[in-house]
Amino acid sequence: MNMSPKPSGTIPDRKIYERRESGVRSYARSMPRQFGRAQGVWMHDDQGGRYLDFLSGCSTLNYGHNHPLLKQALLDYIAADGITHGLDLHTDAKEDFLRAFEEVILTPRGLDYRMMFTGPTGTNAVEAAIKLARKITGREMVIAFTNGFHGMTLGALACTGNAAKRGGAGVPLSHVAHEPYYDYYGPEVDTAELLEQRLSDPSSGLDAPAAILVETVQGEGGLNAASPEWLRRIAEIAKAHGALLIIDDIQAGCGRTGGFFSFEGMGFTPDIITMAKSLSGMGLPFALTLFHPELDQWSPGEHNGTFRGNNHAFVTATAALRHFWSGDEFQRDVARRGALLETRLDRIAAEHGFETRGRGMMRGVNTGSGELASAVTAACFDAGLIIETSGAHDEVIKVLAPLIIDDATLATGLDILETKFRQAMAADYAVAAE
Ligand SMILES: *Cc1c(COP(=O)(O)O)cnc(C)c1O
């Protein structure tokens, strides 16, 4: 028996990952460092390296890493022996969260939703949403969109477009029709009208849908941002054809595109909304499915789970709602930063003849090439900037900086991106000229 006084882990053994961790790991491959600490917009590795985080856990850390206020709320709760796990029992933490969500989010927006705590990952919130839509309508088919991303469990995966992800299913993924998203065929073709035409044509072969499931901005699918008009039309089409409209706000919500919900001010109200990622505010697993009260046709335990309603996440989420969303200062800051980001990315894209994508603080540059995009993001990482790609061919360089980032630090990160982009393009041309 090893009686070494050194706690395990103090002797570096970085081969442990290759030896023991499944090959399914992915982000660790493009960022091969060991991280120990993170605060605000910065992550620190064990070699003294400091990284500016423009990925934010794929928009799970909208308020940055270990926000002092959220951290303190959680520390206080744990110190007072607050309930950590309570199945779906009523707890002080749950009451506080439900009340904060009602007071800060729903009531001021004139929204009326029931709140369902699913298992704590986004995909589980999507499973609950499509199950409920199928149960209510008695229909099987769900309409999802090209480049949509909704999670990895079978029901949500069936709604996801990406072939590599779908290939992992091992069984047929069925009962979903993938229709062209906004602008899929370019600005000349109105894909909402195409959908309407197919749904109205008794001979189109498209079954009547239980739901239309859509992201307002496709986070993993390349930052395609649908226009408010298109989304409003999709909402009308859903209603006209007896389908429920599900907005998957897991990545675009919680302020990423400006408002708490990504569809705010667009003139429609979804029947069902899914949320996760930044909902806890601190990166804790936490997911929520919202639906109009008359849709709450679940029988007790029908969609069950051991980890429904993470009490620690209730605590941090409540603190985040009350701190960031009680007034409109945070939203104004995010809008200003989003405009800064837009200006800078437009400039970077224009320099190389590319285009930008996205909305709010969820924007990127479409480089048209996965190779180029990954060359740029790899060079950025070496320069201390964590940034990832998105899209069918990983061709879009995606900026998901924490929403709390100050303007100067945002500019610092964008300076790195601008420089590395220029260098990658120059290197590319040098190779092409040889
Ligand atoms: C991340 C994501 C999901 C899946 O969430 P998980 O927590 O990874 O299961 C679903 N939909 C969208 C839009 C997402 O970005």
Name of the top-level CATH class of the largest domain = Alpha Beta
Bound molecules: pyridoxal-5'-phosphate
Helical content band: 25-40%
Strand content: 5-15%
- Calculate Rg over CA atoms: 22 Å
CATH level 4 superfamily of the largest domain: Type I PLP-dependent aspartate aminotransferase-like (Major domain)
Coarse morphology: globular
As residue ranges, the low-confidence spans are 1-6
Order of helices and strands: HHEEEHHHEHEHHEHEHEEEHHEEHEEEH
What is the structural class?
alpha/beta
CATH architectural category of the largest domain: 3-Layer(aba) Sandwich
Largest sheet: 7 strands, mixed
Distance between the termini: 61 Å
Trace the largest sheet across and list its strands: 4-10-9-8-7-5-6
For this structure, the CATH topology of the largest domain is Aspartate Aminotransferase, domain 2
The number of distinct structural domains comes to 2
Given the structure, what is the number of helices? 14
Mean of residue pLDDT values: 96
Pathway: Amine and polyamine biosynthesis; ectoine biosynthesis; L-ectoine from L-aspartate 4-semialdehyde: step 1/3
Protein name: Diaminobutyrate--2-oxoglutarate transaminase
Keywords: Aminotransferase, Pyridoxal phosphate, Transferase
Cofactor: pyridoxal 5'-phosphate
